[in-house]
TrEMBL record:
Protein name per UniProt: Enoyl reductase (ER) domain-containing protein
Organism (species): Tetraodon nigroviridis (Spotted green pufferfish)
Organism domain of life: Eukaryota
Bilayer-crossing regions: none
SUPFAM superfamilies per record: GroES-like, NAD(P)-binding Rossmann-fold domains
Length: 308
């Protein structure tokens, strides 16, 4: 492309300080250096984690920055040493990098690549950022920063995808879908014939429902206070639906009565402390597999054991 090797001026949503609105600014995006890739972002989603870091991150040294980590785009240019990717490739930026060669990448019990953290530091420290605005370096959030028309990432932070894939849909694979699906299949390890409860039917929750179905769960109970989400959850594999607002009893009691004592797997996809406490006190007591997927916005404590 004609922009290869040159600084690109483009628009980005810049977070200048915590707990303040993002500002659309013109930024400068430097060319990729060795083992880096510059991507034209075509579609990006807004994840709750982006909002959390904007509203709850009080570390002023993290600002200014460009948020965003759930996106899809097209390779614009590559830096020296990059051989696996070419300009024009459709890709998804990855905030958890994978070299696919180290002992951690080859170990099914972890996805924390031992080579990744060096590349993260290169991108997430302001002085190493490829972004500049009004003479100031902008921190690259998780090394991806997809709230910009162009971004530069490590070659370890890219997944090449099918050229026919619709970028406005597959961008969700960058975080929400793999988070929920992976929690059910890889973390909770849902078993065939089991009974599962999924709390929250947003993107992560629906992906968790899909993961439970793929793992062979017999009953998938979707829990949400918005009944409009139930039909969509059914498409993804939910078999039953519970709206806590329809019951006077605690949701733990409702599920206990529905299942004859409790579910086999519980996946929390809301990030609501009250939901976590009510759910965890009940399910841990019954020695159930329990998986908290989302980030709570408060500190909380739970009873880890109580007599049945």
């Amino acid at each position: 492309m004609g922009t290869a090797g040159k600084i690109i001026k483009c628009k980005a949503a810049v977070a200048w300080e915590p707990n303040k609105p993002l500002v659309i600014e013109e930024i400068e995006v430097a060319p990729p250096q060795a083992n880096e890739i510059r991507i034209k972002i075509v579609a990006t989603a807004v994840c709750g984690t982006d909002l959390y870091y904007l509203l709850k991150n009080m570390h002023k040294d993290s600002f200014p920055m460009v948020l965003g980590h759930e996106a899809a785009g097209v390779v614009e240019s590559v830096g020296p040493g990059v051989t696996e990717y070419q300009p024009g490739d459709k890709v998804i930026p990855l905030f958890i990098r994978q070299c696919r060669e180290c002992r951690f990448c080859k170990n099914p019990k972890t996805n924390q690549c031992e080579k990744a953290w060096g590349s993260v530091k290169d991108m997430t420290f302001q002085e190493k950022s490829r972004f500049t605005c009004k003479g100031k370096k902008l921190l690259q959030f998780t090394g991806t920063s997809t709230f910009a028309e162009y971004t530069v990432v490590s070659e370890l932070a890219v997944a090449k995808i099918d050229p026919a894939a619709p970028l406005d849909k597959v961008c969700l694979l960058g975080c929400g879908v793999c988070t929920g699906y992976g929690a059910a299949v890889n973390t909770a390890k849902v078993e065939p014939g089991s009974t599962c409860a999924v709390f929250g039917l947003g993107a992560v929750g629906l992906a968790a429902v899909m993961g439970c179905k793929a793992a062979g769960a017999k009953r998938i109970i979707a829990v949400d206070i918005n009944p409009d989400k139930f039909e969509k959850a059914k498409v993804f594999g939910a078999t039953e639906f519970v709206n806590p607002k329809d019951h006077k009893e605690p949701i733990s009691q409702v599920l206990s009565e529905m299942t004859g004592g409790g579910v086999d797997f519980s996946l929390e996809c809301v990030g609501n402390v009250a939901v976590m406490v009510r759910r965890t006190r009940f399910f841990v007591t019954l020695r159930i597999e329990d998986c908290i997927i989302t980030i709570p916005h408060a500190v909380f404590s739970v009873m880890l054991w109580s007599p049945v």
